[in-house]
User: What shape does this take?
Amino acid sequence: MLPAAEPAQSVAEDRVKDAVDQAPLPADRLRPLAELAPARLAALRGLLTDIDDTLTRDGAIEPVALAALHRLADAGVPVVAITGRPAGWSEPFALAWPLAAIVAENGAVMLRREAGLLQRDFVADAPTRTLHRQRLQACAQAVLAEVPGALLARDSAGRLTDIAVDHSEFTQLSPDRIEQVAALMRAHGLTATVSSIHINGWIGDHDKWSGARWAVEQALRLSFVAEEWLYLGDSTNDQRMFERMPMSVGVANIARFVPQLRSLPGWVTQAERGAGFAELATALLVARPTVVRSAGAAA
Assistant: This one.
């Protein structure tokens, strides 16, 4: 008789524990989400989140994550998604998902619904984007010529301001090859980051952090106060957000990247990917009325 399969949540917890055991961490990093005080969750204005392997699995949003987005929207909690995915890939989701905005291509393009129509905004003007495009394509050709096995991401046709090389979505690159691609991008004057599936390269100083500020201020017409928001992510291209955001959470599959991360999230969910996002959404929504009732009782 075969042994029963181990529950997925238990497997995720073990992976995080193993990663922590292999690389000792500061005491205030990668704590279980259950240790995040409900009062801090209740005080949040909204959520900022990565998309790939944070809301999605194999490129599609997990039903439990989409349901969580709807529950948050119904409760008046805005969610801004910030991704390395291209604008073209993100457009249908900006229209279909209950989000305040999607910031695509690592902070370069913002997509949102206005009166039922898609609004698209850019950090750089059209002439600058044209000049950058020429440099980006030259770098892409160099990567394909010099890095064995390198392939452009299949979503490249929808990219307007960056390039992406696949390392885990439809093909596999070794860690050495991934670093070779990133180094070559930097040699061409690009900013390079590694997500859970792609190596992204772009020209400019925009990133997920600047994209978060941009979306909150322009899409929501709010002053961006980092303490009022929580960021959720899963990989090395989320590091700046983990570093700058006072409250940050990793979904459990972040365990894969812990050895490469210089900046870690403060907390980690028990579940992976979209189920981890739903876990956080539930904790936030449970915390909000709890704190309101307590305040009323104290009065």
